[in-house]
Amino acid sequence: MRIGNFLPFHDGPLMRLRKRVCAPHDTMHIVMTLSDSIRALALSFPLTYEDAPWGFPVFKVGDNKLFAWMIEDDACVEVTMKLSTEEREIAELLPYVRRASHVGRYGWITATVTDDETLAVVLEWIRESYWLKAPADVREAAFEGT
Question: What is the pTM of this model?
Answer without folding.
Answer: 0.77
